[in-house]
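Need a sequence for this fold. Nothing fancy.
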């Protein structure tokens, strides 16, 4: 019984390493192309830091096609990761730095994020997300990226030039590590869930979801240390758009998903309501106060307590 847990931990570490390699390579390429911090945060970094969730979905969907019920792991991981990002991670960052927002992010990107959560909830009303609905979500994400790209203004040229061959190689290796380790995580999480009689959605939301959110925490902290406030907020919001629309959309397009009633009627509504309240925090004076940061951390504490005590 100890071996599957050890393999799960090994897989999660591998997922972090693979994601880190991919994020660094993507960021270097974006910097070399003179893209703005906000655009890099909302696109390159949000996709890069969502790679653990993306590959978890792909592996889970392949398992589903082979008759293994991995829907709870896939959807639970996605929702749990997003909740911890927008509450605990954003709150922790707000305690140690002044996290500012930009008007265009609150005017365009944040409402898109709320719309993505609402769309996920609507699609899950019948207890499943079909392949067609998954394809629609992924397609909507592509449209979102195209709109962002059309608004992007190139920065002034800088002297930094990436070694594209090297960065591309690192990117490929990072993807390979992600694919292998994501399969270890999903398969052993399913085994542990079935052995201990724990809901798969609980394992996804409270264990894998927490672990796959760590790249966003690391990236956001590094961005703030470097003074890139817009990139930090953009990464968190971008990831909360990428995860439900692109990661879950691709997974559902491959196999379709069942949606547990707990996820449908507790986790997803909690995610939407807290995200809406947090948007109000930023709208007030375009920054997060220490008090508001503590409230956001409190949101996650309440979520985790209810999930652990009643919905295991």
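Here you go.
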């Amino acid at each position: 019984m100890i071996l599957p847990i050890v393999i799960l931990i090994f897989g999660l570490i591998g997922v972090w390493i693979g994601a880190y390699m991919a994020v660094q390579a993507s960021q270097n390429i974006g910097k070399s192309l003179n893209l703005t911090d906000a655009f890099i945060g909302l696109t390159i970094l949000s996709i890069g830091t969502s790679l653990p969730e993306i590959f978890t979905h792909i592996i889970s969907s392949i398992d589903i096609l082979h008759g293994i019920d991995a829907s709870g792991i896939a959807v639970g991981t996605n929702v749990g990761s997003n909740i911890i990002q927008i509450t605990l991670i954003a709150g922790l960052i707000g305690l140690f730095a002044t996290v500012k927002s930009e008007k265009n992010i609150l005017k365009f990107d944040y409402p898109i994020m709320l719309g993505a959560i609402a769309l996920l909830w609507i699609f899950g009303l019948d207890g499943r997300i079909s392949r067609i609905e998954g394809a629609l979500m992924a397609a909507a994400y592509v449209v979102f990226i195209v709109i962002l790209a059309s608004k992007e203004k190139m920065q002034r040229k800088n002297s930094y030039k990436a070694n594209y061959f090297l960065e591309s190689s690192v990117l490929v290796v990072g993807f390979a590590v992600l694919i292998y380790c994501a399969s270890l995580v999903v398969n052993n999480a399913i085994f542990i869930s079935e052995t201990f009689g724990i809901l798969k959605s609980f394992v996804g939301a409270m264990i894998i979801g927490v672990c796959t959110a760590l790249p966003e925490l690391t990236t956001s902290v590094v961005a703030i240390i470097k003074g890139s406030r817009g990139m930090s907020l953009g990464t968190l919001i971008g990831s909360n758009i990428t995860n439900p629309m692109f990661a879950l959309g691709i997974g559902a397009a491959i196999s379709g998903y069942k949606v547990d009633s707990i996820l449908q009627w507790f986790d997803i509504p909690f995610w939407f309501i807290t995200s809406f309240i947090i948007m109000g925090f930023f709208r007030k004076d375009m920054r997060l106060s220490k008090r508001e940061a503590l409230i956001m951390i409190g949101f996650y504490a309440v979520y985790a307590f209810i999930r652990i005590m009643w919905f295991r």
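For context: The CA atoms of residues 77 and 204 lie 4 Å apart.
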